[in-house]
C-alpha cells in the first residue's frame, strides 16, 4: 500500500493549523478526528498587554525572551495599533534576544530585530539555565508568554536577581464547542484511535482536564495501545509527568511530526497468518494479503480479541465484553458475521460448536 497510514485513526488536538496537520495525515491515508483541546484568544485590546508594553518602554529590558512566533507578531501588531510599535522596537533592539524556537526566531528577524541565542531543546528550563549562567542580577527581562504564565521560569529568574516583565500576548480558552474533544476522549478511553497528536503543552493538559473521571482510562490507553505523538519535547512534558511514553521528532515541525507517526504506527501493528492468509491489524482495518479491509468497530473489536489469543477459543461471553455496553450474545454473532464478510476470507474465523470462535491460525 502506498498510503502508509491507511487503516489508522488519528486524533488532532490543535486549533491553529489543525487543517494543515489533518491534510498531511489524510494525504498518507489516515482517518482524522478533529478535536481542538483549546483555542487561542488574541489580546490586542487587553489592558494587561498594554501595561506590559508600557513597562518595557519605561524600563527598557536588558533581555527579551521570545517564546513563540505568533506571540511576538501579535505583540508588535497590537503595539502598532496603539502607536507604540516604533518605540517598542527601539527598546527591544538594544536587548539580548533569546528566541526559544525557530518560529520565534523568524518573527524576531521579520521585525528587524537580531536574536543572539536559542536553546537546542526549545525548553524554558534551558533558557533559564543559560541566562543564569550569563548573569541576570539587576537586569530587566521581558518574557513573552505563550498562552499561560510560566511561574517556574519567572520565579527562577527573579531568584537570580532579575526583574521580570511578563508579556501576555494571547491566552488559551476552552474550545467553543467542547463536543468533539469529549468524543475524542471517549475514543481514546475505548482505544478506538491509534494515535493522538499534540502541538502544545497546554493542549495536552487541557485534554487530561477535560477527561475528568475518565482520566485514568485515557492515561492507561496512552500507556498502552494509543500513541501520544507530540511536536516537540516542551509539548510532551505534561504527558511525561504522568508516565506516558511519547513519540516526538527531533525538530519541532508539523512535517517532522507526521513523519514520526508514519515511522511509528506501522511498527506497532500485529501481523499473523490465519486461514491461509496474511493479516495485519490496523486501527479500523485489517490488511489481508496486502489489501486494506476497513471494518466497523464491533467486528474490529472481535478480531482484536481473537488475535490476542491466536488459535484459542473465545466464548461468546468473552467476546461480548469487547463490544459496547448493552450488546447481547446475538450482537456477537452479528459482529462475527460482519467480520467474515468484511475480510472476504471466511476461513479466518472458525466457529467451534457450543464453545465459541477462534482464529484458524496457520
UniProtKB/TrEMBL annotation:
<dbReference type="InterPro" id="IPR003754">
    <property type="entry name" value="4pyrrol_synth_uPrphyn_synth"/>
</dbReference>
<dbReference type="InterPro" id="IPR039793">
    <property type="entry name" value="UROS/Hem4"/>
</dbReference>
<dbReference type="InterPro" id="IPR001867">
    <property type="entry name" value="OmpR/PhoB-type_DNA-bd"/>
</dbReference>
<dbReference type="InterPro" id="IPR036108">
    <property type="entry name" value="4pyrrol_syn_uPrphyn_synt_sf"/>
</dbReference>
<feature type="DNA-binding region" description="OmpR/PhoB-type">
    <location>
        <begin position="269"/>
        <end position="361"/>
    </location>
</feature>
<protein>
    <submittedName>
        <fullName>Uroporphyrinogen-III synthase</fullName>
        <ecNumber>4.2.1.75</ecNumber>
    </submittedName>
</protein>
<dbReference type="InterPro" id="IPR016032">
    <property type="entry name" value="Sig_transdc_resp-reg_C-effctor"/>
</dbReference>
<dbReference type="Pfam" id="PF00486">
    <property type="entry name" value="Trans_reg_C"/>
</dbReference>
<dbReference type="InterPro" id="IPR036388">
    <property type="entry name" value="WH-like_DNA-bd_sf"/>
</dbReference>
<dbReference type="Pfam" id="PF02602">
    <property type="entry name" value="HEM4"/>
</dbReference>
<dbReference type="GO" id="GO:0004852">
    <property type="term" value="F:uroporphyrinogen-III synthase activity"/>
</dbReference>
<keyword id="KW-0456">Lyase</keyword>
<feature type="domain" description="OmpR/PhoB-type">
    <location>
        <begin position="269"/>
        <end position="361"/>
    </location>
</feature>
<keyword id="KW-0238">DNA-binding</keyword>
